[in-house]
Input
Amino acid sequence: MIAVLQVKPAVCGGMTMKRRTMEYHIDGLIALLLFGVFAACLMAVLFTGANAYRRLTFRNNMFYENRTCAQYMTVKVRQMNDPRAVEIESFGEGDALVFPEGEYVTRVYYYDGYLMELYSEKNSALGPEAGEKVMEAGGLKLSLEDGMLLITITDREGTGEDLMLSLYDEGEVAA
Output
């Protein structure tokens, strides 16, 4: 005779159900933990990228303002029929670059945190506040020696940029 050992299915099935339920909970916790790690890594990468983008944008804006200001000054000088007529005079919070145009003059100067431009009669009593704001700036220094115009433009952060322009055409020699 062969002895057959019978196990009650209810007891064995009950143990298996508890074991399976516990395995499902552990599997769920592991999946949730992996998702949390993935989300944390994703957020770290996004914040790092956003910070780098913010820094690059700020730097590019500052360079853009400096280049734009330097190009503006260069164009104003080059627009003159006779660049040698450019003068420097005290005006506003410092010096002004003066472009004579017959009975009128255009002054480019620094005043109250801005690079300003004022078009008026030569002997006008208008003050520096009457000019048009061109762009924000931190300061402007001008000097003119031997036909060379040195312009130092300071931005809002205090960084200066020098621009040197020759007021003579090619082939001309300063007298």
